[in-house]
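Students often ask why we bother encoding 3D structure as a string. The short answer is that it lets us treat folding as translation between two languages. Here is a chain of 53 residues written in the first language.
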Amino acid sequence: MGDLLRIIIAILLPPLGVFLQVGLGKHFWINIILTLLGYIPGIVHAVWVIAKK
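And here it is in the second language, the structure alphabet:
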């Protein structure tokens, strides 16, 4: 159930979903950059980070 909630959060605010999964690591900063470049790449990266767990 936790992963489903993280994926929903990642769709609404991708960096927050990544932060909840991995903290302030490299994936968080990559996601910030991707989200600034385009909302969809940020969502894709966030869902990938959450799903690969």
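Translate back mentally: Residues 2-51 form one domain. Keep this in mind for the problem set.
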